[in-house]
Amino acid sequence: MDEFELIRHYFAAAACARVGGDVALGIGDDCALLGVPVGEQLAVSTDTLVAGVHFSDPCDPYLLGQRALAVSTSDLAGMGATPIGFTLALTIPSVDPDWLSAFARGLDTMAAGCDMRLIGGDTTRGPLSVTLTVFGRVPVGQALLRSGAQPGDLLCVGGSLGDAAGALPIVLGEREADTAEAAALLRRYWSPQPQLALGQALRGKATAALDISDGLLADCAHIAEASSVSLVVEQARVPLSNALLRFAGAEQALQCGLSGGDDYLLVFTLPADMLPAMQAEGWPVHVIGHVAAGDGVRLVDAEGNSLSAGHRGYNHFTS
Ligand code: ADP
Ligand code: MG
Predict the structure, then answer these.
(1) Domain with CATH 3.90.650.10 in the chain
(2) Which of the four pLDDT bands, split at 50, 70 and 90, describes residue 177?
(3) Ligand nearest to the CA of 89
(4) Which CATH architecture has domain 154-300?
(5) CA nearest ligand 1 atom 17, residue
(6) What percent of the chain has a predicted confidence (pLDDT) above 70?
(7) Is the CB–ligand 1 distance for residue 2 below 6 Å?
(8) Is 121 in the pocket of ligand 1 (CB under 6 A)?
(9) Where in the chain is CATH 3.30.1330.10?
């Protein structure tokens, strides 16, 4: 099977490669063509997942396809963008039909849930890695940036944190996965659900937002820096799932929630007067602290005393 047959068979023929929505032309030409409605801007983001660095190798190709697309699409959620489509730059060591069809099915599953379309890509031979570029659209001036947080705003997250980090020992084969809790955590690791609807609902309301990929405290530091403010996180208000608490124990669960990466939930700052309406509409908004004047991220107990944050998240280039 040559490169072109491979692309046709596994990717151009995939359900997620069907043209529609804002995609005027998809796979097969030199470029895809996207329509962006007047008054909207194109939101673009790229992520690379490298075997042995971002996922264990070997791993289940179906789950990898799902997770790769979720991780990338989550950046659109963090900007409040509406998904349009994505390109796939795939590097594979050899042509393995079972692997490719399972990987494409994984992409299909996540693409259907996110209203995403595969619009093109590149296929090369080499050590396994997956690069996805996602495209979305957002009304001019309404994208959720990291830079607008104001002292007095509430600091909020879109759900319980740390589940994906809690699953890591299972993913790495260090712990058994034979309980309902373990299964729930593994689902959060392999199939995170980008909070696209929440991101869009926060347009014109949240003053800053991003999706948590490196851990709550590490990602809050990005908002603090971009907005020139301090973020105060109340440790006791960080939501942790029962599955995580049972599987990892209270202390480890808290570490996962504060510093574990891979959750792909939104963290955002919200003027206090916006909270009642968001909650009344049923959006998952959990207040975990507030924005103050100053800089950096401060973890505090119920009385407002500073706590040590411990390990602050994953960074590829920290020695
Ligand atoms: P070119 O040489 O013009 O860059 P390619 O031969 O790399 O084109 O690809 C042919 C077509 O197939 C292009 O439309 C490209 O976007 C698409 N394509 C290549 N690899 C993939 C892939 N892994 N998934 C989806 N589309 C792909
Ligand atoms: Mg090419």
Answers:
(1) 154-300
(2) confident
(3) 1
(4) Alpha-Beta Complex (3.90)
(5) 120
(6) 97
(7) no
(8) yes
(9) 3-139
